[in-house]
């Protein structure tokens, strides 16, 4: 391997680990949300903010963070965001009151809002187009891997060994501390890619250009609906499984199947897409498959629900890494950060409104069936948007040339 290739893959390796450590912070809270509620003597709505609050601040900061990376560079921008995340996690591990934990959770969301939308920019400036599929697959799989690990072992392993929610937060902060140190020490970005590749356009000009791109807007809406489906499904399927006779532990395990089955799919699917030279089928086909999966879930029993949870994990994982590549495919290099921020900002609104809406429907109707019908419609809408979007894969690039 040449020195230049090493120079590219070292920061990518650190970015992959950063993504893994970052999504642990997202998903270490849901498994212990009930314990936090009882320990702090708060209600369910207050406890839910310790998870959804991350999304709230993340979507607010995502666009300015993308612009910042386009201006001062990804090395410094992501480093700042990672440092904010690390400090917030360390502070959260020392907090013992609800207002303090919530405040540090919101601060964590700010750090994530700086880091998350700018990861595709690392891929765009350091990896040749023919290697973008592999790089995006590794990065996307690391996000899902961090989430799956946190869901899987926080309750059965971390909490029994270390005893308190503060100790659990501290243990899960360790990978993030390591990733932040590695980022500052080992990540080198070529000077000509450090800050917008020489772009001098104003924020207003850049924002008008990106926001005025119809395809970027469609991707943002597609990502919103994608997250609406995923987070609503993931948030309420355990309750449905318990209604069908599953234990709490079994319901949690069935829910984690969504993530575990997705990891190998993510690693494979981006390479397949770039080998085929097309991305568009991996945007619309999952919408159809997810709609059919949700429809089948209404009529199936507990045993067959395992199969549907696996199907959901596979089809959801097909689209997720492709969505993360689209800011790179649809915008100029100097505006990738801003485009990623815009897509993330709009996209994670789906994660904010979806689960509470599902809970509201459950409170009103006493059933999750209407929520599943809503998810069928959402999945179908994603298929339509995926069909409308233009092809941006390597084959389309060759045709344009």
Topology diagram in text:
Blueprint: H1 3-27, H2 33-40, H3 44-72, H4 74-94, H5 98-115, H6 119-126, H7 132-162, H8 165-186, H9 203-211, H10 214-243, H11 248-260, H12 262-276, H13 281-299, H14 302-330, H15 336-347, H16 349-365, H17 369-388, H18 394-400
Helix pairs in contact: 1-6, 1-7, 1-8, 2-3, 3-4, 3-5, 3-15, 4-5, 4-8, 6-7, 6-14, 7-8, 7-11, 7-12, 7-14, 10-11, 10-14, 10-15, 10-16, 10-17, 11-14, 12-14, 13-14, 13-17, 14-15
Instruction: Give the fraction of residues assigned to helices.
Output: over 70%
Q: Please provide the ordered H/E string of secondary-structure elements.
A: HHHHHHHHHHHHHHHHHH
Cα distance spanning the termini? 30 Å
Major beta-sheet overview: none
Structural classification: mainly alpha
Choose one word for the global shape: globular
Named at the architecture level, the CATH assignment of the largest domain is Up-down Bundle
Low-confidence stretches: 192-200
Q: What percentage of the residues does DSSP assign to strands (E)?
A: under 5%
The total beta strand count reads 0
- Enter the CATH topology name of the largest domain: Growth Hormone, Chain: A
Q: Helical element count?
A: 18
**How much is the average pLDDT?**
84
What is the name of the CATH class of the largest domain?
A: Mainly Alpha
Domain unit count: 2
User: What radius of gyration results from the CA coordinates?
Assistant: 20 Å
The CATH H-level homologous superfamily of the largest domain: MFS general substrate transporter like domains
């Amino acid at each position: 391997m040449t020195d230049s290739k090493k120079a590219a893959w070292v920061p990518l390796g650190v970015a992959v680990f950063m993504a893994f450590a970052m999504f642990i912070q997202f998903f270490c809270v849901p498994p212990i949300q009930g314990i936090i509620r009882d320990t702090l003597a708060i209600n369910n709505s207050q406890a839910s903010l310790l998870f959804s609050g991350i999304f709230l601040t993340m979507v607010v900061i995502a666009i300015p963070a993308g612009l910042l990376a386009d201006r001062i560079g990804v090395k410094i921008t992501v480093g700042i965001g990672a440092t904010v995340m690390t400090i917030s996690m360390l502070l959260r591990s020392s907090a013992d009151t609800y207002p303090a934990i919530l405040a540090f959770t919101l601060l964590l969301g700010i750090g994530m809002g700086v880091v998350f939308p700018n990861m595709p920019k690392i891929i765009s400036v350091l990896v040749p187009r023919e290697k973008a599929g592999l790089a995006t697959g590794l990065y996307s799989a690391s996000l899902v891997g961090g989430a799956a690990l946190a869901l899987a072992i926080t309750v059965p392993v971390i909490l029994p060994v270390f005893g308190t929610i503060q100790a659990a937060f501290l243990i899960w902060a360790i990978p993030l501390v390591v990733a932040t140190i590695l980022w500052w020490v080992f990540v080198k970005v070529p000077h000509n890619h450090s800050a917008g590749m020489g772009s001098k356009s104003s924020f207003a000009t850049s924002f008008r250009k990106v926001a005025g791109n119809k395809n970027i807007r469609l991707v943002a809406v597609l990502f919103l609906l994608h997250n609406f489906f995923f987070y609503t499904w993931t948030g309420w399927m355990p309750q449905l499984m318990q209604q069908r006779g599953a234990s709490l532990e079994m319901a949690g395990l069935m829910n984690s199947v969504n993530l575990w089955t997705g990891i190998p799919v993510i690693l494979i699917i981006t390479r397949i897409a770039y080998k085929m030279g097309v991305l568009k089928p991996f945007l619309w086909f999952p919408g159809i498959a997810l709609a059919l999966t949700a429809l089948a879930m209404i009529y199936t029993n507990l045993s067959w629900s395992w199969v549907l949870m696996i199907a959901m994990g596979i089809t959801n994982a097909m689209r997720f890494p492709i969505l993360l590549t689209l800011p790179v495919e649809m915008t100029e290099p100097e505006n990738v950060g801003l485009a990623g921020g815009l897509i993330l900002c709009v996209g994670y609104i789906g994660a904010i409104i979806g689960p509470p809406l599902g809970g509201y429907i459950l409170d009103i109707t006493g059933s999750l069936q209407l929520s599943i019908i809503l998810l069928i419609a959402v999945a179908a809408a994603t298929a339509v948007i995926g069909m409308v979007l233009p092809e941006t894969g390597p084959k389309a690039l060759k045709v344009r040339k």
